[in-house]
Amino acid sequence: MADSSVGILFWIIAIVSITAAISAVTLKKAVGAIGALAVNFLAIAGIFVYLDFVSLSIFYFLVVGGAMFTLFFPFIQKFDSTNEAVSFESHQKIGRYIFMAILVFVGSLYLIAHTEVWQYANEARLITLSKVLDTIKTGFEAPFLFTITFLFLLLLIITTRQKPKVA
Amino acid sequence: MFYYLSLSAALFAAGMYGVFARRNFPAKIIALFIMLQAVLVNLAAFNKYVQGEDPTGVIFVFFILLVLVCQVFCLVFVFNHWRRQSHEQADDSLSLLK
């Protein structure tokens, strides 16, 4: 199912959108969460442009941008980032796990899209590990696979690393 | 379309987590906002891949956005009213203390 209409730009927008949404939900500071929501909002406007609904995207940008600003401006004004009373509860650990789950999900989607696994599943043919490995070998080049694996491991280490406690 | 639906599902799941896990009211509003965005993406994707030239889904999105604006103004009005009331109560208690 290598859909040619879905390009690399879609993946960038989608990953930015999902990451910003997760950040908006998990960030501790109110101002940071609102900033992440703004990034998510821009990414969704980009998705609308990608779907060829340019007028909808402009309307969305103006209306939702204005509504967000009207709704959250008092919070931004009132809640200073150093004010502890307005900090959201910390859900950093859960946020990390969700981030990793999203990474695995997006990675597997990408893998399915660029191999013949989807076709095997569609035609109810038997899928074996060797067939999957063959399709990966033919669908991807070695440097690309190496880079993706390296980036994935780097992100895994960064997101699951525990911060040392200061005495 | 599969990709758009997957993106929408992921956004909706993140928003739902926020709605259930957070106790702070602004955080709940942000999570609801993310869920609404997921619904809008779903509608637009269905309109493009199922309806074709017929813009029913996009018109739905326009109306949902208009309703959203009305809701935001209602929320701002309620917030202002609530803040004014709480300030008045604080003033009353201060004058009683005097």
Quick structural overview:
The complex is a heterodimer of chains A (167) and B (98). By secondary structure, chain A is mainly alpha-helical. Chain A has helices at 8-26, 30-50, 54-78, 92-113, 117-122, 129-139, 142-160.
Describe it for me?
The complex is a heterodimer of chains A (167) and B (98). Chain A is mainly α and 167 residues long. In chain A, 74% of the residues lie in helices and 0% in strands. Chain A is built from seven helices and no strands. Mean pLDDT of chain A is 68; it is low at 80-86. Chain B has one domain (2-97): Helix Hairpins (Orthogonal Bundle). In chain B, 91% of the residues lie in helices and 0% in strands. Chain B contains three helices and no strands. The longest helix of chain B is centred in the C-terminal third of the chain and has 42 residues, at 56-97. The mean pLDDT of chain B is 80. The chains are: A mainly alpha (167), B mainly alpha (98). The interface between A and B is large, with 45 and 41 residues.
What is Rg of chain A? Answer: 20 Å
Low-confidence stretches of chain A: 80-86
Q: Please give the largest β-sheet of chain B.
A: none
* Annotation, overall tally of beta strands of chain B: 0
For this entry, what is the oligomeric state of its chains? Answer: heterodimer
CATH architecture of chain B: Orthogonal Bundle
Number of β-strand runs of chain A = 0
Count of spatially separate domains of chain B: 1
Look at the helices and sheets of chain B and give the structural class. Answer: mainly alpha
Measured between the Cα atoms of the first and last residue of chain A, the distance is 54 Å
Q: Indicate the structural class of chain A.
A: mainly alpha
Shape of chain A: globular
Shape of chain B: elongated
Q: Give the end-to-end Cα distance of chain B, rounded to a whole number of Å.
A: 67 Å
Q: Percent range for helical residues of chain B?
A: over 70%
Beta percentage of chain B is under 5%
Beta-sheet strand percentage of chain A? under 5%
Low-confidence stretches of chain B: none
SSE succession of chain A: HHHHHHH
Helix content, binned percent of chain A: over 70%
Based on CA atoms alone, the radius of gyration of chain B comes out at: 20 Å
